[in-house]
Design brief:
alpha/beta, Rossmann fold, 2 domains, seven-stranded parallel sheet, Glyco_trans_4-like_N
């Protein structure tokens, strides 16, 4: 059994981590990763020994690489093409008929929201993405909610397998005191880590407004991630006079170290799958404040492991931060983090993800 995973290559969020950690668990001769552009994903994949092939496009709409990709698939004898994301799905639609592959995809986000706030172009891309689903033979959904979303747009339930994201749980990193100092943070600061792409769907406005309204200078926010609305977020920070409380760190590889100095991890998305970043927080015994998206209710059991807030609930999010701060002041926050870690490790391991994925591959090839 040989599997080719195909993804655009420009990802910096959860789908990037999902692909690299999953493929790293497979025998090297069994898998290969194909991308349309170099980036952090291809670099990380190579670092863990994954074979990477680049089919460089002249532009996002360049279809000339598809003949090269089809020839590569046929020459190498891949049995399954496993795509990730709208770009890979859309392009595969024009190419899959030239191969003998079974085509499966992983749905990492709500397809109806992938191009939100993209205007007319966004609406067109959404339609093209959903159109590509017609030829896909099997779907992995990273939450039960996403499986329901697929069924609502006409995908048959028997063609969908729910596979939750997972990580290899390791002992928590000890607090990186020097990192805290380098970031200008003290032991008296309550530190919130917000790890997310800088994208409208991620809810940065909600968090920044909450921080502004709380008016507590001891509460500090680390924004970790890159994306298309970086300038808008910088302007919002200035507008709300939060420069002394917010640090923008961009894309970072030392997420575990950053979590080691954090008191709580944030998620504020309008739509999400099963966020790997929350599992990374759980690994570090960091409790969570999150909006009610994807499969978070299966990970964060309230109130002993964190707080879940309705999507877009400004007052609710502010209240959750206040409650977390009060728990921190009372010395009770760490216990929530330990409970979260214990629950996550028992139910959301990478080994379980690999087992379900392999089982599905084998079933498709029978």
């Amino acid at each position: 059994m040989k599997i080719l995973h195909l993804i655009s290559g420009g990802e910096t969020g959860g789908s990037r981590k999902h692909v690299v950690t999953l493929l790293a668990k497979f025998p090297r001769e069994q898998i290969c990763l194909a991308v349309f552009q170099e980036g952090a994903l291809s670099q990380e994949a190579r670092e863990v020994g994954i074979r990477v092939e680049v089919f460089q496009q002249k532009s996002r709409y360049d279809l000339s690489v598809l003949n090269q990709l089809a020839s590569f698939i046929n020459k190498e004898g891949f049995d399954i093409l496993h795509t990730h994301g709208p770009r890979a799905n859309f392009l595969t639609t024009f190419m899959i008929g030239k191969t003998n592959c079974r085509w499966v995809t992983t749905i990492h986000s709500d397809p109806k929201l992938d191009f939100m706030k993209g205007g007319l172009k966004g609406k067109l891309f959404t339609k093209l993405n959903l159109w590509s689903y017609q030829k896909i033979q099997y779907f992995f959904a990273v939450t039960e909610r996403f499986k329901q979303n697929l069924m609502e747009i006409g995908i048959e339930g028997e063609k969908i397998q729910t596979v939750y994201n997972g990580i290899d749980f390791t002992p928590p990193q000890p607090e990186d005191v020097s990192l805290r100092e380098n970031l200008g943070l003290s032991q008296q600061d309550f530190i919130m880590a917000f790890i997310a792409r800088l994208h409208p769907v991620k809810g940065h406005d909600l968090v920044l407004k909450a921080l502004h309204n709380l008016k507590n200078p001891r509460v500090k926010l680390l924004l970790i991630g890159d994306g298309p609305i970086k300038q808008e977020i910088e302007e919002k920070i200035n507008e709300l006079n939060l420069e002394s409380q917010v640090t923008m760190l961009g894309f970072r590889k030392d997420v575990a170290n950053l979590l080691s100095i954090s008191d709580v991890a944030l998620l504020a998305s309008e739509s999400e799958s099963f966020p790997l970043v929350l599992l990374e927080a759980a690994n570090q015994e960091v409790p969570i404040i999150t909006t009610d998206v994807g499969g978070v209710k299966e990970l964060v059991l309230e109130p002993e492991m964190g707080w879940i807030v309705p999507v877009g609930d400004q007052a609710g999010y502010e209240n959750a931060i206040k409650r977390a701060y009060d728990s921190w002041e009372n010395g009770m926050l760490q216990e929530k983090g330990k409970s979260l870690r214990k629950h996550a490790e028992a139910n959301f391991s990478l080994d379980n993800l690999v087992h379900l994925t392999t089982e599905t591959y084998s079933r498709l090839l029978k």
